[in-house]
Specification:
By secondary structure, the chain is α+β, with helices and mostly antiparallel strands. It has 13 helices and 11 strands.
Length: 336
């Protein structure tokens, strides 16, 4: 059965209500039928706040997940009004708890019975709402003790969100890993009755530095894929690898070649298929004088992508390799 926005008679949060929350919380007028399952959570150990979601809807990432370091996180879905994201964050930024912010946003929304929304604040206070007109199977599970909420609508069966909650409670690892476990549990339980299409994950730090680009721990989107959760897990793994690579780059800037080597090695172990990570690991080893260890890595890199051979002499002027023609020749001789 096809549901259209016109037939649902949905009224978004009004501009006046949004304005009362602050000038940055202006609503979006387009309401989208994003039926899905998601989780909002706070990691008590790190304070990190996150949202993860999967849906049979194209490009779910710009619609459902919202988060701000030191403030909170929001998931807005079902016949989703994205305005719940900025409005909820604005209210929590102003000092309101997540449950209070959610109540305020719902009171201002004439279409709340087709909404499904969850909010969590930086203190771990959490609340969720499943409107009476959300398409079955629909419901949520709020766990105040473990600081998360899972919510789902248009599911194959009503055991989906309880399975998500149990998977999150039983999982270990960082916040990304635990939220992935919740999403994967939903899929094993049947997931969205329509299938799957896109997924997203957003994680921010528990406190704000005032520099949003530094406070965003992870932001990944799978826009359209036959197995979005598998692709999301792959991207999380690559993200972890590049986090080590970035740390290696910072160490290089400080001429701390030992730390750079450790970070590049960690990155390479997580994503051995990415040639560039291996190249920088080899270059750092060579810079440290560990040429015998570097050469087999260079050989593997050049065998897979010969273009990296041309980059070797350019590293000299950046002081990433010594100005030693004999060394450069040894490195380039590893090319097939």
């Amino acid at each position: 059965m096809l549901f259209t926005l016109a037939s649902m008679m949905v009224t978004p949060i009004s501009a006046a209500d949004a304005a009362a929350c602050g000038p940055s919380a202006a609503p979006r007028t387009q309401v989208r039928p994003v039926h899905t399952y998601s989780i909002v959570a706070r990691d008590p150990k790190t304070g990190e706040l996150g949202v993860a979601v999967q849906s049979h809807w194209f490009s779910v990432g710009p619609i459902v997940p919202w988060a701000e370091a030191g403030v909170g996180a929001v998931a807005t879905q079902s016949f989703a009004d994205p305005a719940y994201g900025p409005i909820g964050l604005q209210m929590m930024r102003g000092g309101r708890s997540a449950p209070d912010a959610l109540r305020g946003a719902l009171e201002a929304d004439a279409g709340r019975e087709v909404r499904q929304v969850a909010m969590i604040d930086a203190a771990g206070r959490v609340a969720a709402h499943t409107g009476a007109r959300c398409i079955a199977a629909a419901g949520h599970n709020v766990d105040a003790e473990h600081q998360f909420s899972v919510q789902a609508n248009l599911m194959e069966k009503p055991s989906v969100w309880p399975a998500m909650a149990e998977a999150y409670r039983q999982s270990t690892g960082d916040l990304a890993e635990r939220m992935l476990a919740a999403l994967e549990a939903a899929e094993r339980e049947g997931g969205d009755i329509r299938g799957r299409q896109s997924a997203a994950m957003l994680i921010v730090k528990g406190t704000s530095s005032g520099r949003p680009w530094e406070d965003r721990v992870l932001e990944l989107r799978v826009e359209d894929h036959p197995e979005p959760l598998k692709e999301l897990r792959r991207l999380v793994q690559i993200h972890r690898a590049y986090a080590h690579t970035n740390a290696g780059d910072v160490a290089l800037e400080k001429n701390d070649f030992d730390t750079a080597n450790r970070e590049y090695a960690a990155a390479a172990s997580l994503a051995p298929e990415i040639v560039e990570i291996r190249f920088w690991q080899a270059a750092t080893l060579a810079r440290l004088g560990k040429v015998d260890a570097a050469l087999p890595i260079f050989r593997d890199v050049f065998a897979r992508e010969r273009r990296w051979v041309e980059l070797v002499p350019r590293l000299v002027t950046a002081d990433l390799l010594p100005d030693d023609p004999a060394l450069l020749d040894r490195i380039r001789s590893q090319a097939p």
